[in-house]
Amino acid sequence: MNTTPTIGVLALQGDVREHAAALERAGARAVAVRRRAELEAVDGLVLPGGESTTIDKLLRVFELDEPLRAAVRAGLPVYGSCAGMILLADRIEGGIEGQRTLGGMDVTVRRNAFGRQVDSFEADLEVAGISDQPGGAAVRTVFIRAPWIEEAGPGVEALARIPERATDGSRVRVGAGKIVAARQGRLLATSFHPEITGDSRVHALFVSMVAAS
Ligand code: GLN
After folding, report:
1. Is 68 inside any structural domain?
2. From ligand 1's centre to the CA of 113, what distance in Å?
3. Residue 209 has pLDDT above 80, yes or no
4. pTM surpassing 0.70?
5. Which of 19, 150, 193, 203 is catalytic?
6. Which residues are near ligand 1 (CB < 6 Å)?
7. Is 193 annotated as catalytic?
8. Closest ligand 1 atom to 14 CA
9. 1: in domain
10. What is the mean pLDDT of residues 194-199?
């Protein structure tokens, strides 16, 4: 694709503006998606964090759930952050009764995986495709009541795992080694929120996936 890709941000809940700004810094044109016609006009889509149970309900209210499932099946590139990662997962642990996902990624995510005691933390993570590039530094990541990937199928590439230590040097007690960023084909998912750090390299990775598709 020679032209600037147009990437939608699902605008039902979450950091819509921050994702749009990061996409624009990464060279895409960002648009809000709330309707089916808007979904049909984008080259890729970001699913922001928020509350996956609420987004699941809103997707049904806005009649976007089936069109989105179909779009994922048809190969639309989608990047899900935090609750967005939950939405992309084929299987979910710790969901509420009746909670559904869009699916597409052959993973089991555990919701609120870090538990109450460490419901938020920051860490500098090595992320494949980003920090391993020439001159690439670790990615500062922010986890907010985040999920992790409990189990992943063979087609899923783990891009980052929970480190042993947080940025403040404290030991990460829960989940060290669990997958927190992954890619499967045109789907990208992170447990963390890259839109709030000012570092748009995760968005740039997604923009390059969209441009290549
Ligand atoms: N805990 C939220 C959920 O289960 C996700 C949190 C987030 O997106 N920051 O949906």
Report:
1. yes
2. 10
3. yes
4. yes
5. 193
6. 49-52, 82-83, 86, 111-112, 144-145
7. yes
8. 8
9. no
10. 92
Domains of the chain: total: 1
Residue 134 sits in which domain range? 6-212
In a domain, 178, yes or no: yes
| CB contact at 8 A, 22 and 206 | no
CA of 134 to the centre of ligand 1 (A): 33
Distance CA 30, CA 172 (A): 35
pLDDT at 118: 62
Cα-atom radius of gyration of the chain, to the nearest Å?
Answer: 16
Q: Which atom of ligand 1 is nearest to the CA of 144?
A: 9
Q: Is 140 annotated as a binding residue?
A: no
Reply yes or no on whether the pLDDT at 176 is more than 90: no
CA of 4 to the centre of ligand 1 (A): 31
- Predicted confidence band at 105 (pLDDT cuts at 50, 70, 90)? very high
Q: Give whole-number Cα distances, 37 to 3, 73, 116, 167, 172, in Å.
A: 21, 18, 39, 42, 44
Position 164 confidence tier, pLDDT thresholds 50, 70, 90:
confident
**Token pair belonging to 9:** 């941000």
Mean pLDDT for the stretch of residues 63-90: 97
Look at the block and give the residue holding tokens 């149970």: 53
